[in-house]
Specification:
It contains 4 helices and no strands. The chain is mainly α.
Amino acid sequence: MSFPPMRWIYAIPQKFKIACVLGSIIFCITIFTLLETRNINNINKAVLSIYEDRLIPATDLFFLAEVSYQKRDQLESYLESSDPSSILISKQLAKQNDRIEALIRKYEKTYLVDEELVHFNGLKNNLKEYLALEKEIVDLSTHNSKEAAKSAFYNRAVASHHKMMDHLSKLTRIQSNVGATLVSSLKNDVAKSDLISNLQLIVCIITGLLIIAIIFAAKVTSVKSDKYNLN
């Protein structure tokens, strides 16, 4: 049995039509809800990662570099001073070392990519080396070996400090690159959310049209039935 175009809907039982429409609505809503929930979770993770694993650590790297330069300048000023105080410089360096240690502990708790981990470990190794040289230089100057202390500072400590700054520079560059990747991923997730919203709108429109068609078909069927009964 065949039906004229656009009249197929009249041949489907009314209850079945309604069941199909409602079933389709529930199915689409469920799928879109799951997709949107997953997408929102991805966006939330990306935003948190940008803030906690990139923005804050990048700031910590800046402070780490700043404190390291302050330490080096303090030690150099101490060595070039005509009346140096080993007690004062030791206190100053100890205070700065505590700040550096706190920043290092904070940084290593964040998520690190493989390349980042390599340079971070290199930074920690160079830092240990520099701290040992720092102590050696202060000890030399304390025991009236100021020229030896200066030689150790300018020949070895400065080179060790440059290595630390090189690792810090590379870590900062990695932070920027990984952050850009996260931002790109975040933009993709936002675009997916827009797509899901548009699909939801389309489904709502189609569902509305189907409901209107079913109501119209029901009215036509009712009118035909009334005419038949009158005849």
